């Protein structure tokens, strides 16, 4: 960990952004034990991958939760997640991919979406990402670690429908800059999501963003 000017903190290649292993385990453990639900909808049985050259977010908070939903055979399941939320975010060269196996008569199909590849980035407001795994070069400005989730003031707050524990562990920062992002997630929600230069393609076989 390296301190930088103006209250910034730079952490490189963290497994889940801003969450030290012990803290993440504790936060998610509390969320599971208290039945805190993350995404306000039943998630599909398919996680998806997202890569980006750069994400710049203002008003950041992260807290633990659980996404509930189904597998591809309709069996109910649950996934512990670290919910990363931004008041606003800009994303450069974003790629999202999801792989569907065993499609009848076809086999495996990959859906790949790209946006923000030109001068105009992807833009989002009140962005919530339910993260299972993330690698990035990360820098945070004015970070607070160990804030009660319901008392966080820097980010957009606990999303309506999450039912997260307001007394549970969270972390917040004025801003977060992530570079070389590689992420696996179960759900994403946003108040607005502007995809400049959107391109969406289907591919036979496995074709993921990374």
Which key phrases capture this entry?
single chain, 210 residues, mainly beta, 10-stranded antiparallel β-sheet, 1 helix, globular
Gross geometry = globular
Q: Termini, distance in Å? A: 26 Å
Number of strands: 10
Rg, alpha carbons: 17 Å
Task: Count every helix, treating DSSP H or I runs of 4 or more residues as helices.
Answer: 1
Total domain units: 1
Strand composition percent: over 45%
| Helical amount | under 10%
The average pLDDT is 86
What string, H for helix and E for strand, traces the elements in order? EEHEEEEEEEE
Uncertain ranges: 1-6, 18-28
Note the main sheet: 10 strands, antiparallel
Helix/sheet category: mainly beta
Protein name: Cholesterol esterase
InterPro entries: DUF6230
Signal peptide: 1-38
Keywords: Signal
């Amino acid at each position: 960990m390296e301190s930088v000017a103006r209250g910034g903190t730079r952490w490189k290649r963290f497994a889940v952004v801003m969450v030290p292993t012990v803290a993440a385990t504790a936060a998610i453990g509390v969320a599971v034990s208290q039945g805190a639900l993350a995404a306000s909808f039943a998630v599909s049985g398919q996680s998806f991958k997202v890569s980006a050259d750069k994400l710049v977010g203002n008003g950041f908070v992260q807290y633990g939760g659980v996404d509930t939903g189904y597998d591809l055979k309709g069996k109910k399941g649950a996934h512990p997640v670290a919910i990363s939320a931004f008041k606003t975010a800009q994303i450069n060269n974003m790629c999202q991919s999801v792989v569907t196996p065993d499609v009848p008569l076809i086999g495996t199909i990959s859906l790949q979406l790209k946006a923000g590849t030109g001068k105009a980035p992807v833009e989002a407001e009140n962005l919530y990402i339910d993260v299972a795994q993330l690698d990035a070069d990360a820098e945070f400005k004015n970070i607070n670690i160990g804030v009660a989730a319901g008392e966080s003031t820097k980010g957009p707050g606990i999303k309506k429908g999450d039912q997260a524990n307001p007394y549970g562990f969270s972390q917040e920062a004025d801003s977060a800059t992530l570079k070389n992002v590689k992420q696996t997630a179960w759900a994403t929600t946003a108040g607005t999501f502007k995809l400049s230069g959107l391109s969406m393609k289907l591919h036979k076989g496995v074709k993921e963003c990374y």
